[in-house]
Amino acid sequence: MKRYLFTPGPVPVPEEILLEMAKPIIHHRTAEFENIFAEAREGLKYVFQTREEVFILASSGTGGMEGAVANTLSSGDKALVVNGGKFGERWMKICQAFGVEVHEIKVEWGNAVDPQQIEEVLKKDSSIRAVLVQASETSTGVMHPVKDIAEITRQRDDVLLIVDGITAVGVFPIPFDEWGIDVLVGGSQKAFMLPPGLAFVAMSQKAWKFNEKSNLPKFYFDFKRYLKDAKNNTTPWTPAVTLIIGLAAVLRRFKEEGLEKIYTRHARLAHGTREGLKAIGLELFAKNSPSPALTAAFAPSGINAGAIISRLRERFGMTLAGGQDQAKGKIFRISHMGFIDRADIIAVISAIECVLKDLGYDFEFGAGTKRASEILGTE
Ligand SMILES: Cc1ncc(COP(=O)(O)O)c(C=O)c1O
Questions:
Q1: What is the pTM of this model?
Q2: Sign of the CA dihedral 365, 370, 375, 376?
């Protein structure tokens, strides 16, 4: 059976990129690798829309998040964390592990944070040194208003905006320099359509000022070392050579397509997915501001989302993600990041309809596929 990967990370990798990565391994302290690294460096600046360096870490996204905290904050600092899902929770856990005090803004799952709330907390508590948020909260399929939050933090010299953009960078606009974000993290296994294993991090000049005072322990993720070495097209430690070769190839593709088209492609696939699901009476998990990276939808009442997911895998070779924690069994999540195209989305909506019919859901069979095709089937 042909297999389809619709999880919001890892995502499918295009064949041409797999073939690049299948070439014999080269040594990293060579001119050949340095040229590839230089291309990847420039390409990342293009995607992050920044003049700053974007570091390439040999870790999954969480390593980038850990580095973001460890390189900017100090023990006893207070951080305001937007917690609207599993990854908001991860920010809290990382801060706590490093002895950073957390002021939590709890956001009900499925909702985006109200920036006004952030402004109010910052006004009341001048000891807060950073705001940490997800641009796209993958556990709920919600996009938080980073641009509006940046307008609040950029007015304050003593507050950083640290953004987990792991399912945002390369999906929708999140211009680092223009918006005034201070730390932005990306990950390879999302819009970059690579295997897991790389994290990307950009730091603003304001963040570097914090770095001078930061006393949290750091070694492997010491960004000062990455900054020094990036200028020589290398990394402090053995880089993930194969993945960086793949990254350079992906970034070449990105430049050919152009950021605007990349964003439009994701927005269109997201729209087609959402409308297709709504046409068969399904409700989206995101109450407002759905992320263009993925669509999370409730299973119909009386049907466990796990049953939908397992049948899709058994009958159609399609892997989707379920819900986590409080959303477990209630929702399923479809990624439209990276190497997913219109035909994939039409196929998954159609397969969902087949499976829902089997499971006894009463709906107009074919309505979802029709709607998705109407949206996605034309040029
Ligand atoms: C928004 C978000 N943040 C953080 C992570 C964690 O990244 P990783 O699992 O690559 O460490 C993920 C990946 O699932 C994510 O989607």
A1: 0.98
A2: positive
